[in-house]
Amino acid sequence: MKTETHEIINPEVELKKYISRAPKSSKFIKAGLERISMASPAGRLAIQGEYLTIKRRWDVPQLLVAKYLRYWRERKNISIEDVDKKLGYSYTAGHWFRLDFGWWGKGGSLPRPSDWFRLKELLGFDDIYDRLVTERVAVLQTVKPHEEGKNPGDVWEIMLEPYPDAHFSIFPTKLVENVLVVGCPPRGVVLDPFAGSGTVGEVALKLGRKAILIELIPDFLSLIRKRCNGKIEVLDDALLEECCR
Question: I want to staple 200 with a disulfide (CB 3.0 to 4.6 A). Which of 17, 76, 192, 223 is the partner?
Answer without folding.
Answer: 192
